[in-house]
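Example 3.2
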Amino acid sequence: MQSPFPGMDPFLEVPSGWPTFHHWLLSVMSELIITQITPNYVLKVEERVYIVDDVEPYERQTIAPDIFLVQSPTAPTLQVAAPATATPATIIERLPSVPDVRDRYLTIYDRRSRELVTIIEVLSPWNKARGSRGNREFLAKREAVFATRTHWIEIDLLRAGERPEEVAGQSDYYVLLRRGNAHGRLAVWYVDVRDALPCIVVPLREPNSDVVLDLQAAFATIYQRARYADDVDYSQPVPPPPLRPATAAWVGQRVAAWREG
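Structure, written as tokens:
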């Protein structure tokens, strides 16, 4: 079944479900890109890991702690002629967690020279949280890449959180492209809740032409594969931030019509 919306589904912005959607999006985008860039380029999914100690509670709920303290069992007191007793179990206690975040993104390398050609970032709640370590590290990486000839694409399908000043306050969602040879110029696709997601270009190295990535096709594939129509509770409010009144009314109409259909 298709989504109630022509583009991004705002109900999928809930932080607790974002890691799964993020994974799906990287996976499907990889499928759409890789057939267009082989054999000259290599597509990889890479990972950035950082410790998160400054996130809001709702963001902390999206991060599964994987650190545990193992406490060895105390040996039982031996009693003469006592009946058999249960073997003591090892006690495992969760530490007060300072969880780590594993943020994944796509990279394209020149197969022959192994040069990094393009980075594709899909933003997440933890690299958009104001003043957080994730936000600082993301912006530092962005600035560093902007000083090189590597192409940079950032895809923001979350209305909540901080945005770079170049695109802040312009639309519900956006995609930004910085070409490595553009000398400071940026290409931006501005997208609202009512819009279909765009077909963007993914630049490579000359003499190879740009390839096209259809984000709406990617989203439609994800929605069906993940069976979001069965899992999303459309009776709940749209995740924050609040929609503008006219947009909220439109969202309600879309959901009602989708249910009837």
